[in-house]
């Protein structure tokens, strides 16, 4: 029997976005949730609940305040806390945000990111037991759309989504080469949204099919199956991560505001195990549900539905290596600072204690064994 890739099948993910909004305000979810200050307690809490693998992130804008100067003090609490608690971490190097001096459209950007990635790998390697797992750039597809097509966050461009996507791919490739220069055994997760775009009834399905197929472009580029001049190669994708939420299936509409969500209890909803089969057939890599979760009372039924689908997929021979609840702690909303009740644990008090969402905790404690 093949040894599992990760210490636990069920995982927890700490939301670590650091992008700038069009207003200029920088989001820093790690700071807002106190995870940097209470990392050891947070990781012990995960380990106690059987979640011995996690996703977390480095904050590039704090590490490289001046070009070429790297200070990892902002990450020490997380890295040392995880190690002390015995939790394996998949580290995001760039979770939407970057330093203010960086121009992601410049020809120098891939090299700038690669040098930061090398420094990060040197730091993480010292403090990591076993395999170093890295996600170079989280959700390239979404980041290129949000930052390059519709101006939702940095670099706040419009109509430049394809250009930004290729820049991010170049940077991710350069970063992975740099990381492997430090640690040849490092392995890479690439987390991308998993969507299903349904055609509108009684309309030509071509546009919906085109939109659905578009979700695979980033991985095709990273693997070098398309536009190999970007540097992609088969050895740069170890695990395909899929981020899947209750709103990830919709009827096609050219304007996102006009989409009709196809919820999991809708008769036209395509089962998750079928989507996972499609991804595995296309890329031939182990899969990870790298993000999934819901808000408020929907947290438990959503987790139950996803876990059933993942169990079915695994019994069908699809190599799903893990399921990551994301976020694992509640956080303020990106746009309005509202208190998002979407985690297993809530905001921390002054001592770092976090009240748990008992219905989901009870479910977790009964769901710790992976399907054989």
Explained architecture:
This protein starts with 9 loop residues before the first strand and ends in a 7-residue tail after the last helix. 35% of the residues lie in helices and 15% in strands. The model is unreliable at 368-372 (pLDDT under 50). The strands form 3 sheets. Strands 1-2-3-4-5-7-10-11 form an 8-stranded parallel barrel, surrounded by 5 helices. A 3-stranded mixed β-sheet has the order 6-8-9. A two-stranded antiparallel sheet has the order 12-13. It has 372 residues and is α/β, with parallel strands linked by helices. It is built from 12 helices and 13 strands. It has a single domain (10-365), classed as Alpha-Beta Barrel (TIM Barrel).
Secondary structure topology:
Elements: E1 10-13, H1 29-33, H2 39-48, E2 53-57, H3 60-63, H4 73-85, E3 88-94, H5 109-126, E4 133-137, H6 140-148, H7 161-182, E5 187-193, E6 196-198, H8 206-213, H9 217-222, E7 239-243, E8 249-251, E9 260-261, H10 272-283, E10 287-292, H11 299-315, E11 320-325, E12 331-332, E13 339-340, H12 358-365
Parallel strand pairs: 1-2, 1-11, 2-3, 3-4, 4-5, 5-7, 6-8, 7-10, 10-11
Antiparallel strand pairs: 8-9, 12-13
Helix pairs in contact: 2-4, 5-7, 6-7, 10-11
Protein name: Beta-glucosidase/6-phospho-beta-glucosidase/beta-galactosidase
InterPro entries: GH
């Amino acid at each position: 029997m093949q040894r599992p890739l990760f210490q636990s099948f069920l995982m927890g993910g700490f939301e670590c976005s650091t992008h700038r909004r069009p207003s200029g305000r920088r989001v820093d979810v790690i700071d807002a949730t106190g995870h940097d200050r209470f990392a050891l307690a947070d990781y012990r809490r995960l380990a106690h609940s059987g979640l011995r693998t996690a996703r977390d992130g480095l904050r590039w804008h704090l590490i490289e305040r001046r070009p070429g100067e790297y200070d990892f003090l902002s990450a020490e609490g997380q890295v040392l806390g995880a190690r002390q608690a015995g939790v394996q971490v998949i580290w995001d190097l760039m979770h939407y945000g970057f330093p203010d001096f960086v121009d992601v459209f410049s020809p120098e950007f891939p090299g700038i990111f690669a040098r930061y990635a090398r420094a990060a790998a040197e730091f993480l390697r010292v403090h990591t037991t076993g395999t170093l797992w890295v996600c170079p750039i989280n959700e390239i597809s979404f980041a290129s759309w949000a930052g390059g097509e519709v101006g939702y966050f940095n670099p706040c461009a419009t109509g430049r989504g394809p250009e930004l996507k290729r820049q991010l791919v170049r940077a991710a490739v350069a970063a992975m080469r740099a990381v492997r220069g430090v640690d040849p055994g490092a392995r890479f997760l690439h987390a991308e949204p998993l969507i299903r775009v349904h055609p509108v009834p009684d309309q030509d399905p071509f546009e919906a099919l085109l939109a659905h197929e578009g979700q695979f472009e980033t991985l095709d580029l990273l693997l070098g199956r398309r536009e190999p001049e970007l540097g992609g190669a088969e050895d740069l994708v170890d695990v395909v991560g899929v981020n899947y939420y209750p709103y990830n299936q919709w009827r096609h509409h050219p304007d996102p505001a006009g989409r009709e969500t196809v919820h999991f209890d809708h008769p036209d909803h395509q089962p998750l195990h079928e989507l996972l089969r499609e991804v595995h057939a296309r890329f031939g890599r182990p899969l990870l549900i790298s993000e999934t979760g819901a808000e408020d009372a929907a947290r438990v039924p959503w987790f139950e539905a996803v876990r059933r689908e993942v169990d079915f997929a695994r019994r069908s021979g699809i190599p799903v290596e893990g399921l990551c609840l994301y976020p694992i702690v509640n956080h303020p909303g990106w746009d309005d600072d509202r208190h998002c009740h979407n985690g297993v644990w809530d905001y921390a008090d002054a001592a770092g204690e976090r009240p748990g969402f008992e219905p989901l905790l009870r479910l977790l404690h009964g769901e710790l064994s992976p399907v054989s």
